[in-house]
Design goal:
Blueprint lengths: L1 E6 L2 H11 L4 E2 L5 E5 L8 E7 L14 H10 L8 H4 E8 L7 H12 L5 E4 L2 H10 L6 H11 L2
Antiparallel strand pairs: 1-5, 1-6, 2-3, 3-4, 4-5
Helix pairs in contact: 1-2
Length: 154
């Protein structure tokens, strides 16, 4: 499946918040998800902020207020409850419904939608990454695995 990846950094979180708003879903494992029709030809993309290995939510925040709290602090130049790179390994964009997208048009559309070009794009094997994450009980960075796959692809 074609995917684009950005490593976690403050500007990625701020752009996500400013351009896409709050996530449509947030998971106890730290994942934050947006579903938006901003892919090539209007395709629906899933934008997923993946947690770091061994994710731990900062004290006093719920799963659903984590992203907005961190994004607001960063946008206002304040200290967030935790730096984004300690919460999320990075952001991935891919077809939400399994549409076959070509990597180059996906990277162009996703980069334009987020206002930041992806650090890597190409074809990834989500099943292999998911199996590895499950086998380690979340003690594994999905973004690192995606970046490794993308570095190996032609």
């Amino acid at each position: 499946m074609a995917a684009c990846v950005w490593r976690s950094r403050p500007e990625v979180v701020v752009e996500l918040d400013q351009r896409f708003g709050e996530p449509v879903d947030a998971y106890v494992n730290g994942s934050q998800v947006w579903l938006l029709d901003n892919g090539p030809g209007g395709a629906t993309l899933e934008w997923r902020l993946h947690p770091v290995a061994g994710f731990r939510r900062p004290r006093g925040l719920t799963t659903h207020d984590l992203f907005p709290t961190v994004a607001l602090a960063l946008a206002n130049g304040e200290e967030p409850p935790a730096p984004p790179e300690e919460l999320w390994g990075g952001l991935e964009a891919f077809s939400a419904y399994g549409d076959e997208l070509e990597p180059a048009p996906l990277a162009a559309a996703a980069g334009a939608a987020l206002g930041l070009p992806p650090e890597a794009s190409g074809l990834v094997d989500h099943a292999a990454v998911g199996d590895r994450w499950e086998a380690t009980g979340g003690q594994f960075c999905i973004v690192t695995a995606l970046l490794e796959q993308l570095a190996e692809s032609p």
